[in-house]
What we know:
CATH class of the largest domain: Alpha Beta
Structural class: alpha/beta
CATH superfamily of the largest domain: HUPs
Distance between the termini: 12 Å
Amino acid sequence: MKPDLLITTNGFQETWPAIEYGAWFAATLGKKITLLGVTENLNPAAIDDNHPLEDIFAQAVELFRKNGVEYTLIVENGNAEDVIPQKAREGEYIIVLGPLGRPQIRRFLKGRSIRYMMEEIDQPILYVPESRLPLKKILICIGGLGYEVTAEHIAMQMAMKSRAEVTLLHIVPPIDLDYPTARTVRENWQNLTATDTPVGRSLRQALEVAKGDGLTAFVKARQGNVVEEILAEIKDGNYDLLCMGSPYSTHALRQLYAPNVTAEIAEGTTCPILSARYKQG
């Protein structure tokens, strides 16, 4: 069963790029849309007032009809950080999110909502702070452990439909332990596809898939801090979409102390990000 889209909004105008991108995504890949509107802080005294959801729903319906996509509208009351993960668990979806417009003091005290969503939602997440369409350039981060496979698979479908150029990126981080595989990667970081290492094999396989689909594809490598180098590549390459695996692809203890790279990237760029946990099959 191919997943449909669950596009979410709390009426905040900055969620509109996610709706716009989701409509394009659904039309391009032939998916159905469920638009979830979350009514937050509903004041009984203002029951007859025009709610921001009404305007954004009206715009969305017009857009969905224009794109010829099948859609369903749902409205739930509550806190978006609670309602969205709960609704996501009720079906097989790709979740499309945008910034929820939280006050700066709340972001400082609790962190950004996207970080929490990545922890709570098992399904693929498409986070869209800015709609960069048409889709011409996709950046796929390859870590070498296979956690990016699900995100990579979705990205390749998007690339085929839009004929987007694909860049496969691996970051070689500072290495503290000197063991054979790490040494090979460090010494051959500019030609990783020629190495018999996990990342070398992952890059070759992804490159073969892309070229087998008739796509223009490249391999790039950078050295340094993973978050800083990915953000620098996004800026230098002017990409329209970033695709990454999720640290929650693994149940290893490492995710308890290692930084959530995907969340940190999402907080540092306006480029749309597709993140997905690895799943067998």
